[in-house]
């Protein structure tokens, strides 16, 4: 009976190690997803910022953002694509940043119907990663996790 108990104890230890390893791997995966998606949005924002006159023209004639004048939409879209990727990459307000970019991604698809299915298919993985990060958070390798840890220890 003692050997059965020892075997069960050993299996529990192995299981605990596997769970810890999976948590570390999921944190690395979340970091990778955050950095990959952040880079895509950041690059788009930089391109828009480098030529705001072209960006305004695109918003005036190609992108049909509902409820906003084209100039406002151009500056707002550029600002979003420069600010929110930084939050996402750092994991600062990580769920909020991911949820915001998830919705922004959908609005991009709606506002630019000329994108076609090929363009939409490029954005599906971003949407999946952003949805994952919205639901599960940015992981332990994030500013949010550090703030949470400090908050818990100070209480």
From TrEMBL:
It is a multi-pass membrane protein. Pfam families: DoxX. It is found in: Cell membrane. GO terms for cellular component: plasma membrane. The chain crosses the membrane at residues 21-42, 72-90, 97-114, 126-147. It comes from the Bacteria. InterPro entries: DoxX, DoxX-like_oxidoreductase. Keywords: Cell membrane, Membrane, Transmembrane, Transmembrane helix. Belongs to the DoxX family. PANTHER family: INNER MEMBRANE PROTEIN YPHA-RELATED, OXIDOREDUCTASE CATD-RELATED. This is DoxX family protein.
